[in-house]
Structure formats: structure tokens, C-alpha cells
Amino acid sequence: MKNVKLNNDILMPQEGFGVFQIPDYNECKQAVKDALSVGYRALDTAQAYQNEAAVGDAIEESDVDRKDIFLTTKVWISNFGYQNALNSIKDSMKKLKTDYLDLVILHQPLSDYYGAYRALEKLYKDGKIRAIGVSNFDASRYIDLVSNVEIKPAINQIETHVFNQQKLTRKYMEEQGTQIESWGPLAEGKNNLFNNETLTKIGENHDKSAAQVALRFLVQSGVVIIPKSVHIERMKQNLEIWNFELNNDEIKAIEELDLNTSLFVNYSDPEFIKSLNSFDV
């Protein structure tokens, strides 16, 4: 597996394990232990996932040393604002049983994210966080943020998959030195991704599944991915993308799948924004 170098020279595994939608304590803890056992060394959780404690216990019970794990969590909007963010990150560290975090991300471009981001900057300067970033910031909000903060985000974690390739946002992120990280790299199977004709046909050329081709496309174009599964065999399959390479024609065919729109979120919808703000952690 490859690493990417962030804009502060920190190395981050290009493929990690995400724990979104695994709120059950025992299931999450076992999934993380399984992921570590098969070779994942980056873990991605969040306050809103309500499973930080399970992740922390899994790390403690695993045979992998904490220093060998790249651990990410995200601050939810109900904890935005400078002091609230500081307090919530300290609480996250307790749940995760660690005295430092490799990456902390602001989960949404809403509420007082400027105050929260300045809390990240302080903890970064204090050595409590090795890298800081944001999530779900489109090109316009991203550019506004980087124009008004001291430390540019190392990461912007955004919905990125074969059907939403984020070409515009990536252009501005690359100009500013921010690494793109994908959430939903398999689009949660939407648009029949696992049986997509283009992906399946390309997979036959490499003895790989459509899902593996979709993941390979992302990493080959420089995207960090965090696929999630509670099944150990699927975890292994998601790691088996580093032993083949897509050719130029295959890449072009996958690029044509881009719909240039989200399959999950709509930040221009007031009801969607209301629902995010009503969720408290």
C-alpha cells in the first residue's frame, strides 16, 4: 500500500478503514480489530458516528502499536465554535484512548466552523494533532476558508467515487496543496456500481471485481480512500487493489461515468441543512 505526503510532510496511508454506520459497540470494535489484522493502518471515525469508544478499545486490544496507526476523527457541528471544539476533541481523545490524533477534520461546512478551525490550529501548534482538515467543503467554501486561515487544510474529505469525481473542487485543492480524501468511494452501491457494465468489463481484464476497479481508479488518480465493511473477506478484497494498474483507455472510460453531482447530499436544500443542525452529539 502507498502513502501520500500531506502538505506538512506527514505521511498518510492512501487506503484506510472507515467506520461510518457501525454504531453498535461490539460490531464496530470487532470490525476495527479485523481491519487491523488484515493490514489496514489508517482508521477513520467521527464524533457523529458515536463509535469512538469502540475504535479506541479495538486499538488497545489489537496487536498493532498505536504509533503505527493513522487515526482520524471529525468534529460535529454541535461542537463547533472555538472552545466547544477544543473541549470536544479532548473528549474524543479520551474515548479513543490516545493523547494525540493524527488527523482531525471539521465534519461539515456549517455553523461556526471558523471558530472550530482555529481550535484545530491551536491543537496542531500544541502538538496534539499531527494534521488538520475539513470535510464536505465544495470549491467555493474551500477557497473562502483557505483565504482566511493561518494553516491550510491538509485534507478535504468529500464524496468522491466514479459517479462524482470532484474535478472542479480537486482543481482548487491541488492549487492550494490540500489532499483529497474520499468518503463513499464505492457510492454505497448506488447507480448499481457493483454491476456497472464499464467497471465489470474492465475488471475482467485484470481478474478484479467492479468494486476493486472503482477503488483502483481513485487511488491511481491520487485520492485517499476509506472503504467500510464489517465482513473480513470484503475488507481483504478492498485491499487487493495494489497489484494491478488501469491503462489510459480504461481510465478514460471510467472518467466518462462522472455525473458531476452528489448522490447523497444537497447543501442548497434548507431541509437538509435543518436536519444536519438538528443532530446533536
UniProtKB/TrEMBL annotation:
InterPro entries: AKR (IPR020471), Aldo/ket_reductase_CS (IPR018170), NAD(P)_OxRdtase_dom_sf (IPR036812), NADP_OxRdtase_dom (IPR023210). It comes from the Bacteria. Residues 24-258 form the NADP-dependent oxidoreductase domain. Keywords: NADP, Oxidoreductase. Signal peptide: none annotated. It holds the Pfam family Aldo_ket_red. CDD domains: AKR_AKR5F1 (cd19133). Transmembrane segments: none annotated. Gene3D superfamilies: NADP-dependent oxidoreductase domain. Belongs to the aldo/keto reductase family. This is Aldo/keto reductase. It comes from Apilactobacillus apisilvae.
